[in-house]
Amino acid sequence: MHDLLVKAGTVVTASGPRKLNIVIDGGLITSLSTEDLCLDQFKNVIDAEGMIVVPGGVEPHAHIGGPRQPERSGAEPVSKAALFGGTTTVLDFATQIPGHDLYHALEEAEERWSGNAYTDYAYHPILTNGADENSISQIKDLTREGIASFKVFTTSIRPPSPQMQNNHTDFGRLSTIMDRVSESGSILLVHSEDDEMVHYNYDRLKDADEWDWWNMHRVHTNQSEDVSFRRVSRLAELKGCPIYFVHVSAKEGVEEVVRSRAAGLPIYGETLHNYACFTYEDYRSKDGMKYHTYPSLKSEHDRDSLWQGLMDGSLSTIATDLVSTTWEEKIKFRTVADVTGGHNGIETRMGVAYTEGVVKRGMSLQRFVDITSTNAAKIMGLYPRKGVIAPGSDADITIMDPTVDKDLSLSDLHLEDYSIWEGYRVKGWPKSVVHRGKIAILDGELLSTPSYGEFLPRCISGEIIEGPAC
What we know:
By secondary structure, this protein is of the alpha/beta class. It folds into two domains: 2-54 and 394-445, Urease, subunit C, domain 1; 56-382, Metal-dependent hydrolases (TIM Barrel, Alpha-Beta Barrel). The chain has helices at 75-84, 102-113, 133-144, 171-184, 195-207, 222-239, 251-262, 300-312, 327-330, 349-361, 365-379, 462-466, and strands spanning 2-13, 16-25, 28-33, 42-47, 52-55, 57-59, 87-95, 120-126, 149-153, 187-191, 243-245, 267-272, 317-319, 397-407, 425-435, 438-442, 445-446.
């Protein structure tokens, strides 16, 4: 007797979409078949006729709340919303606190997640301002222990304030960090903006009394992204360090990722689905700070470049940069210096990517799977356990209903009390989700529990480290 059959869906595998049956036992995919199977051989059957069946989504970029940041949504509500949205794996950040090392940051992250996870999860430690040699030296040990990715910021993002810890890493330390990452076989995530330009822009706008939030793109500019990406990619080339540029927002950022990859460098670019759908003009709407995620929304031309990059393979992934708060918290601050950043769209990521990519722009189903699951799994060291429908892989499966055609309402969503996607028309939406062989969502009904998610140790393949593999 087999555990589960996902029957007769259009299954998107590494070789393309095809009508297949998926047999699942012990949490793993055991076979794919075109044959008619006897349903009496299965404890459970999901009829996926007419549905599109893809690997469970992998969200590579989320900031989950905990005791130090109680204004942010925690692991349980975020992972539940992720599951409803077809995402079965979430990568969170473990932020170093000055005076403490990276192990302390990981302990805090585990406290947030353990016993509170509907999805599987992993962490990227963040090295913060003034990181000492001891913390930087821990990169090698942590990589051996299954923590395969680390993050830095090349800017403090905002002027000094009690709201936000200064995470700026100077290029001197960045050079040493890249050495350790390169030696260890891990990958470095970079929030890349030019710190001097960013803070000059803050000063300039303050002097001109143009401090309203809708000027955010005039602080976090295309030029800042351009210059910083170029500096980081050049240093990475010298150090032999693989780089994952988070939240690419500008045409110039896309162009530098393209240039670096053409030169054979192991450089990968991520964008956000809100960056790919909105522009700085949306900041001008009522309570338009709700759209803001750092660095900033850019122009329609930049938005088009992001989609072109997602379509042609220049950009590898689509993420959210999740920071989820209540509506009250999100609109509390209204100047360029203090707007609450982050996007609570972890549930909408796959549905919006399908609508905008596949339906509106003709993206192939394979490419849709690449940007929502497979590439993140490969880059972050989870493949082929995650990110693919294949025998031996975890049975993480999202069944999407391509007949859904509706305007999203808050009642469709499961995270906090607002969404920038309210009223957005989706064409295609996750219907059912299997997570490590267990039916987690069935026809929109939650069947899983917040103790089912597991921590995932990771190891990045040589192919990813040596060149632009995906």
